[in-house]
Amino acid sequence: MTSTSATGGTGGDKDNGGGSKDESGFEHQLKTDQNGALNPDYRTPFKNKIDACKRLIRYHVFNECAFTPWELAESNAQYELQAETLLKKFNNMKYKYQSLLVKDSMHWKFHQVLFTMPVVRL
Question: Where in this protein does the record put region Disordered (predicted)?
Fold first, then answer.
C-alpha cells in the first residue's frame, strides 16, 4: 500500500487484482480521515492555511445527506419562531432598561432639587 495525501489523492497505487487500482488507497484514506476526525490534534496550532486545510478536510467524512424540502421548511419555521421569541425578549429587556434609566434619572433630579432648595425658617 502506498502513501496518500490528506486530500484523498493516492501516490501511485498498484493494481491489486480484483478491484480498481484506487480502491485500497481510497479505503486507507477513509480510515485515516476517520481516525483523524475521531482523534483530532487540537493541541497543535495550525502552521499555515495549507496545514489548516489538510487537518480540517477529513471532517467531510461525517457529512450528512441533504435535507428534504419538508425538513428544510420545518427547520426554517422553527428558526423563525426562535428568532421572533428572542427578538421579543430583547425588546422587553431594552424597554425595561430604558424605563429604569428614566426612573433613576428622575430620582436623582428629585433629590438634586430637594437638597438644593433653601430651607425656609420661621
Answer: 1-41
